[in-house]
Design brief:
Elements: H1 12-34, E1 41-45, E2 51-56, E3 70-74, H2 95-104, E4 110-113, H3 120-127, E5 131-135, H4 139-148, H5 154-169, H6 187-190, H7 193-207, H8 213-230, H9 254-276, E6 283-286, E7 301-306, H10 316-319, H11 321-327, H12 335-340, H13 349-352, H14 361-373, H15 375-398, E8 399-410, E9 412-414, E10 417-419, H16 421-430, E11 434-445, H17 453-456, E12 457-467
Parallel strand pairs: 2-3, 3-11, 4-5, 4-7, 5-6, 7-8
Antiparallel strand pairs: 1-2, 8-12, 9-10, 11-12
The chain binds S-adenosylmethionine.
């Protein structure tokens, strides 16, 4: 079939050919994963002469861990099932929550992720026959997590895919009414005018489908996932910014083409996911809760796990602002939403005039030295730790006695200071009815050029807390 996009010289055949190639690459990766030897745990020496343990693929449930051990986990499942839908900052690689869930809970247990983001832990809980609750303050995270955890009826999907692809290919910009064009702040700076028309047309075409809400949301998620790529903003920055120097090239028809590509690529994945999930297990995604106030009774959960935000690191509302505006998830200023985030930078002068202390000497000494050079950042760090303390107290309350809270968190740099989140959170947890069972590192190799170690290797620390 050689169908021409009405306005552009682009064919559906070209898209299908590209998608086929991508699917072949995906299959190769899956085949590689199936070739991993059963003995997939090896002691290795990294480029810096340090001994670490490398684990390829599935992490053995009985993996031996001692405090301060360091691991290099090689993940093969980042695009398996719905895991690869949409980019999301600091996503879990699926093997990690899977391992935590299998090691520290049993089928039928109830699991909590209080900062659930795009829902990786919930997907793994479901696939492994556990019920779970996910909390996230961000409407965009709630939307993505919802799509990634919701099965779709295959027949309906195939039927409406055909209709939707046909509509997109027959692009009719004249059918878009003025009301269907977006009016959010600086929209004409963020996007070329042709792209605005294409995105508005795709959104309108999805909303006009006479299909189930689940399927519409799946299509809206495909739509959302292409937005950053076809905007004028830098693709590789967690903040949404236009960098003139990058000279990013976006062409008319890119939005239409990328949407169809994504839809075709994601279709087999959602089908696989829908057929893999067991019956009788549930996921509750809470849209009105906050990780600092978990509205469940005492002693409810068998396990909690999370990768929380960091102090002063990712501005989530700003990262997803274009997607959130297009999806109608936020309107106007982002500030009220930013203020609700743990790790927020939205603080006022009145708040940071004076030094605030946590009440734990080792942490307060760090806050003092940051305060000496930057009062505002000292307050941002204090607020982060104080909010995380509220979270730790709440999670302790809702966990059953003896149950674990497993936190995966890295360090970040604040005005030249290495801010060791994981150590501070351990100190706070010890003060709040948790004992420390284990802590060990998971290394993420960023690149291999010769730069100092701390820039090349990022370590996430996995802290296993146990309710006393
Ligand atoms: C590192 S991300 C989690 C990523 C997740 N593990 C995944 O695989 O997608 C941290 C999340 O915490 C959320 N968050 C920040 N403040 C919060 C709060 N007060 N209550 C609940 N969630 C919050 C952010 O919106 C963000 O999605």
């Amino acid at each position: 079939m050689t169908t021409l996009f009405r306005y552009y010289d682009l064919t559906l055949d070209e898209i299908i050919e590209k998608v086929d190639k991508q699917q072949k690459r995906n299959k190769k990766r899956i085949n590689q994963a199936s070739l991993i030897p059963l003995d997939n745990v090896k002691r290795i020496t990294n480029d810096f002469g340090e001994n670490i343990t490398r684990v390829d693929g599935e992490i053995p449930v009985d993996l031996k861990i001692s405090n301060n051990d360091r691991f290099l986990f090689i993940s093969y499942d980042q695009s398996k099932f719905t895991h690869g839908f949409h980019r999301y900052p600091a996503k879990f690689f699926p093997e990690l929550p899977r391992w935590i869930i299998k090691r520290y809970s049993k089928p039928g247990d109830l699991i909590l992720d209080p900062f659930t983001g795009s829902g990786t832990a919930n997907i793994e809980a479901l696939l492994n026959r556990r019920n779970s609750v996910g909390i996230d303050i961000e409407p965009f995270a709630q939307f993505v997590a919802h799509v990634k955890t919701t099965p779709i009826n295959n027949e309906e999907l195939i039927e409406y895919n055909e209709e939707l692809v046909r509509t997109i290919i027959n692009f009719h910009p004249e059918k878009i009414s003025k009301e269907q064009l977006p009016t959010f702040p600086y929209v004409n700076n963020w996007f070329m005018k042709e792209i605005i028309l294409e995105l508005a047309y795709i959104k309108k075409s999805i909303l006009e489908l006479d299909c189930s809400t689940e399927l519409k949301n799946f299509y809206l998620c495909c739509f959302s996932s292409i937005i950053r790529g076809v905007s004028n903003a830098d693709d590789n920055c967690t903040r949404t910014v236009i960098r003139k120097k990058l000279n990013k090239q976006v062409y008319p028809s890119d939005a239409l083409r990328r949407f169809v590509e994504t839809l075709l690529l994601w279709t087999p994945k959602i089908i696989d996911f829908s057929s893999a999930i067991p019956e009788h297990y549930y996921i509750e995604l809470q849209s009105k809760m906050d990780a600092r106030k978990i509205e469940y009774g005492n002693n409810t959960f068998d396990l909690a796990l999370t990768s929380p935000p960091y102090a002063n690191a990712v501005d989530y509302p700003r990262t997803h602002q274009l997607e959130s505006y297009w999806l109608g998830l936020v309107e106007g200023s982002l500030t009220p939403l930013k203020k609700l985030h743990v790790g927020t930078e939205s603080v006022t002068i009145d708040q940071y005039k004076e030094l605030h202390k946590i009440g734990i000497d080792s942490i307060d000494a760090v806050l003092q030295s940051i305060y000496n050079i930057d009062k505002r950042r000292a307050y941002i760090c204090y607020k982060y730790l104080d909010d995380m303390r509220k979270n730790i107290i709440e999670v302790n309350r809702v966990l059953k006695p003896g149950a674990r809270y497993i936190i995966v968190v890295g360090n970040n740099k604040i005005r030249g200071h290495v801010f060791e989140n994981w150590k501070y959170l351990m100190e706070i947890a010890k003060d709040n009815n948790f004992e420390i069972e284990n802590y060990f590192g998971s290394e993420i190799i960023k690149h291999f050029i010769k730069v100092p170690r701390e820039e090349r290797i990022n370590t996430d620390w996995i802290v296993v807390l146990r309710k006393r």
